[in-house]
Each structure stands twice: as structure tokens, then as C-alpha cells.
Amino acid sequence: MGPKNEREKAVCDWLAAQKGAMLSLIEKLVNTDSNSRDKAGVDAAGEILKAHYRGIGLEPETIPHDTFGDAIRVPLPNPTANDQRPIVLMGHRDTVFPTGEVKRRPFRIDGDRAFGPGVADMKSGLVMNAFIVEAFKHHGGNPGPLVALITSDEEIASPSSRPVIEAEAREARVVFNAEPGRPTGNVVKSRKGGVFMTFEITGKAAHSGSMHQHGISAIEELAQKTIAIHKLTNYDSGITLNVGLIRGGQTVNTVAPWASGEIDMRYKRVADRDKALAAIRRIIDTPTVAGTTATLRIDGEFLSLEQTAESERLLALYQGTAAAAGLKVEGEASGGCADSGYTAAVGCPTICGVGPVGGKGHTPDEYLEIETIVPRAQATALAIMRLADAEI
Hints:
5-stranded mixed sheet; 11 helices; about 25% strand
């Protein structure tokens, strides 16, 4: 079943005619370096999007930040709607790739796929959101005010964007996060949370030949703690621990006076987070090698995206509108983290991975399935127009 009425048909038909324009804007964004820690680059990508919105008669609001890229909020009001809670279309414009990556491998199209830094994760999703907003600007039909929220540092756990996202979500009716659709074509119904930590160990230096017995090895202690931390992994409950980076020591012939490791912890449920984090703190606080001391620091964190009754209704609604756009979509779980966890945690119904389909993110082989851009835009637009059907 396709559009239910003339307004839905007008929005879908307009989006169907925009594939070329969408690709053009995607190319501009992809060809702009925007590593999370490159404020100038991230803000340059933001200016491209702000110019597009201004071109359709909307005025972006900038939420400045001194260190990371500015957040951008683009409202499309609907003063006659009974429900004035914003319907949020969310996405981030930063990428994991270093400044200069665009020069090495700019945007290109090969067959039905487009390639380039951030083409799927998630510059095409931001473009999709922009054209959905534009479709409603031209034809109306949005059952409440829309907000396009464009953030700047998701790839490093949103240190500046998290409070902006949470504030928006507390007032929102629903959030559509345009992270890339899964390679299967599915959307994301749940995501793991993640805590990223550093532990540092202090020992005592000594000559490893003549004074070995007087040294206290921080590296030995790090090895013991790493083994204990890894043993906290529980696949049945979805908890994984990984010490992915280690550093330490002074010279090969010195008992190591210091060492450090970086921990990636993933979990499905908030209760599991607290339990695992407490276990890690006990390991850090309990020395195995006498005389060592250790500290633990949380460097960044994503919250888990957990399903609720409202998010289940939202998923069912999206599956129906995707079918109306010619797509077969299921919801799947992801071990990766995203900003959608923040919006769900404050109680806002959230669906993630509604962007165009892509894969191999964070690698030079990242790709976008070009033919999914229009139907994924249509599916989200129809879901917005039918929110009342899901009692949201």
C-alpha cells in the first residue's frame, strides 16, 4: 500500500524527484573533511547544511562550542498543530577520518554505490533529513513542528553534543536518528551502551639486572588487571570488555614504573553497566603486585538504546511506511553505540538507523547504496505523517 492521501502522495512524489539533488549535496559534504577533533572542518560541513536550509527559507540556530564543532538546530514550525512537541530528525556530521582523507579519496560513484569518507556514517543521513524537512516545507503535512538536529562529535561519544541532544529529546515527541540503515536493509531497534575508560598504574623503577628485587612492575600489574577485566565478559548478558590499548615502561632494562590501559566496555542494559563498572573499579582498586597503585578515569560514554512499548510501536509504524515505499524492513540489534541512546534514556520514543543503507563504516571501503536514498526518505516522511496511527 502506497500513500494514503494526496498530501502523502505529494510529499513522496517530490522526494522521488530529488535523487540527483540529494547526491549533489552528499558529494559536497563528503568532500569536506570533518574529523571530530577538527572544529574548523566540522563547522565547514555545518555551513554547507546551513546554506541549504537557508536556501529553502529556514533559519538555522547555532549552538556554539569553543572546542568541538557547533551544534545546529533547524526548526520548521507548525503553529496550528495540536501537539507542539518537536518531531526530531537527528544526525552527526563528524567522521572518524583524519583531516586530508578527502584529498586522498574524494566522493565517487561506482555503479549503484557511492564511496567516500562518511558517505554512509552519516552524511547521507543528514542530507536525507534536510530533504524531508524541505518536502514538508513545500507541501505541509507534518503533524507538529519539525527540528533537524545536526551534531558535531558523535564519533568521540558526543562530549559537547550530549547535553544539547538530551535537552532536545526531553521536549520531543519522537526522534528519528538517521544513522545508516544496516547492510541488510534493516533499521536499529536496540543498541549497546559503551563506557570508554583509562586506567593508570604506578610502580617503582629499578635496574632490571642489578636491582631487580627493588623494583615494582607496573606492567606486571597491568597484565594481571587486564586478565581480570577481560574475565568480566559475559556473552549471554551482552557485556563485553576489551583492553584495546596499553602503554608503559621506561626502558627494556628498567622495571616498569608506570603503565596504562584503555578499556572498552559494552552492555545492553543500564543495570548491567552499573554492575560491570563496579566490578572494574574493584579490580583497579585491588593490587595484585604489592606496592602498585592504580586509578580509573571515564573518558566518554554512550547510553544503551533499549526498547520500550512506545519504541516498539514506532518500529511497527516505520515497517509499515517502509513497505509503502517499497522496502521490507525489520528491526535488529547493534553492538555499536550512537546518540540515539541519549534520547531513549530521557524517555523519548526513538528509532535509529533510518538513514540510507550503507556499510563498512570507519574503513576506506565505506559505501552508500544510492537507490535506497529516496525510499528511506519516503519511509521516514510517511512515518512522521502517521505518528497518530502509532499513538505517539
